[in-house]
Amino acid sequence: MTAPLRIALAGLGTVGAGVVRLLAENHALVTARAGRPIEVVAVSARNRTKDRGVDLSAFAWEDDMTALATRDDVDVVVELVGGSDGPALTLARTALAGGKQLVTANKAMIAHHGMELAALAEQHGAALKYEAAVAGGIPVIKGLGEGAAANRIDRVFGILNGTCNYILSQMESTGADFGVVLKAAQDLGYAEADPAFDIEGVDAAHKLAILAALAFGTAVDFAALDISGITRIRAADIAQADALGHKIRLVGQAELQADGRLFQRVAPVLVAKSHPLASVDGPTNAVVAEGNHVGRLLFVGRGAGDGPTASAVVADLIDIARGNATPAFGVPVGMLSAAAPADAGHRKARAYMRFVVADRPGVLAEITAAMRDAGVSIESLIQQGRAEEGGPESESVLVAIVSHEGPESAVSAALQLLEGSPSISEPPLVMRLIG
Amino acid sequence: MTAPLRIALAGLGTVGAGVVRLLAENHALVTARAGRPIEVVAVSARNRTKDRGVDLSAFAWEDDMTALATRDDVDVVVELVGGSDGPALTLARTALAGGKQLVTANKAMIAHHGMELAALAEQHGAALKYEAAVAGGIPVIKGLGEGAAANRIDRVFGILNGTCNYILSQMESTGADFGVVLKAAQDLGYAEADPAFDIEGVDAAHKLAILAALAFGTAVDFAALDISGITRIRAADIAQADALGHKIRLVGQAELQADGRLFQRVAPVLVAKSHPLASVDGPTNAVVAEGNHVGRLLFVGRGAGDGPTASAVVADLIDIARGNATPAFGVPVGMLSAAAPADAGHRKARAYMRFVVADRPGVLAEITAAMRDAGVSIESLIQQGRAEEGGPESESVLVAIVSHEGPESAVSAALQLLEGSPSISEPPLVMRLIG
């Protein structure tokens, strides 16, 4: 077992360079723990001449990344290119079909093609490992797939996107509105130049779809996910939530319901301040899993960045070097069951509904009548004073309603009754309360 | 790989019965995840006729527990008897020496004999697994030994004893004193009839010694541990900590210092309310590890009880069934380094010092002079009114001092200056502040 584990790295961005750096810096201990050296043999990236702050001179270079997967001197291909399809997928398929192990940080690819890749891995006796794809450095794929493997897991939920959590935390602490904080986060490198995947909840949804499959033993079903992002949250919503004893967090929630249906949603929610997720601030991620014997497990750590992500990638490599092999989704792909999507309308929750309304008589009566007619019981209602003065909405005010616990379908029905009302100037924002 | 993994269970107390129950209840999913059935073949316990609420009729019975380790039809021995030596140790040695895998929840045995047993396991090609020995259902052995394996870990600390955490939480919420809460906890079954191992910090120390070895790659060194329990904490200390923005928690802290020395301590500490450990209430456990690439990882879950502990035991069994093998302490035993114990006197911290003093003039001057002479800088000092009226201490008052950050040796020196003072009626209680 002293033959080195020979790896090829595709992608030399922040994470790729982080893996090279970690393997150099922790070489002795990684070798000791892995039982043999883990050696980078070959690399590939778009630009050969770019200075990445790490020494690549000892590694072979491939201009065509797919060529990494067919080299005879490579045991494991590490895919850090990103993108659900395109070159990353071609590389992954080629590597696994050739019986090479694949380690990836690519959540989009696993969410969209994880089943196919896992089947390919099984067929060719190769490992498919993706710890870095979910929640950065937190060993949550291992935690669910191995640590909690004795349990029927009924629910898994958590904060899965560091960018959104950073933005929401900043909005909380500065009182600034979404756009201002996003811009500052971009300037600091905490948000991408094109932040859509993060702020619209797609990145968190990729991760949640993967967690759900692993936790419940169900087929990955990204398409069925209900996704809302954080772009419509205003400083006023944060202030309102605070007054109610809550914080706003973008939370991914998955549940295998008692009826066998699969509920999966990524959305901003109001989290009670006493709930463990409420104290998760900044770019941190947190995952909660509830097992039928272990009870509630919580994993917290840094959800992104070169160090944490490289830590997860190299943990996968050490597993492979040790000969540890767990099926990609905990059980053979053929055993993953296809669960029908849940009908969220039956689910019960308290709801926060925020309306931007014209400042004129009768608006509250119209809204509260709709609630009554749809069977939504109001727990509290707050109408705030005029919005930012001088702004385009200076004639509008915010109305925030919190309902008693009731079916989501009733809230939808109430909003439908209000649809088209000339008093309501933009679509209402609805967030559920948890905790 | 469809041959069943055949196990023998030694010990049928809460945890043993919990394992039988879990394997029955989750049989299909455990089989699917393990890749083959996990079957109990034989059991042993002190009393054959006792009703444990689980059906044992299908299992062979051994009066002599050691006989489990020599049965030809057993692959894995699961030791749930407890005790660092005696029958548990004999069983473990016999099983491993015979090449059988050993799974144990026995923290005392691993803290005292883990090195010997790990060496025996290596020698005979058997696995030694003990996830259930530390932090109940939280997969922290896996989290550190595999999930964070790419990192040099510099510090590991946490709340490792659920009984103590329950007692401290109850003291917080009820304002009652230690003895009252302990009695109530015993009545509810949250504390043992003989609670010494828990409340004196020994149980937490066993777990910390194991975590330190795994995290740092150092030899298990339980003997070097500095251990204080929670028996001397009064309601007044909790109230004082609260006024200072802190909670009191029994925390195990281990650090491989920059000088290569190993610091290991279990003691009650004042944790800032904003610190993640402060919100860990009741019988919950929490472990923080700090890695040089991953940053800070936090694992939280239930630290005891049949369900969580059985979950950890069966996770180990699933690992064995899958063929996953990680060295017991992350690296071969021969590579574990012997680190000299740290000299705590050099460590810097803020300290809380509580004195019970006679209510007469000059006491404060005596205490503060000692602090000055020893170079302890006082940040705050509070003298509380008379203690419980009518009680034996009605002539005594409490003085609580918080120092600025400084070396522990200075605090020790100040206390030494005060030793034997007729004004001070019991040994001062010192707790460090963290967070």
From TrEMBL, chains A, B:
Binding site for L-homoserine: 192
Database matches in InterPro entries: ACT-like_dom_sf, ACT_dom, Asp/hSer_DH_NAD-bd, HDH, HDH_cat, HDH_CS, NAD(P)-bd_dom_sf
Domain of life: Bacteria
Protein name: Homoserine dehydrogenase
Keywords: Amino-acid biosynthesis, Methionine biosynthesis, NADP, Oxidoreductase, Threonine biosynthesis
Major enzyme class: oxidoreductase
GO molecular function annotations of the record: homoserine dehydrogenase activity; NADP binding
Binding annotation for NADPH: 107
GO BP terms in the entry: methionine biosynthetic process; threonine biosynthetic process
Entry similarity comment: Belongs to the homoserine dehydrogenase family.
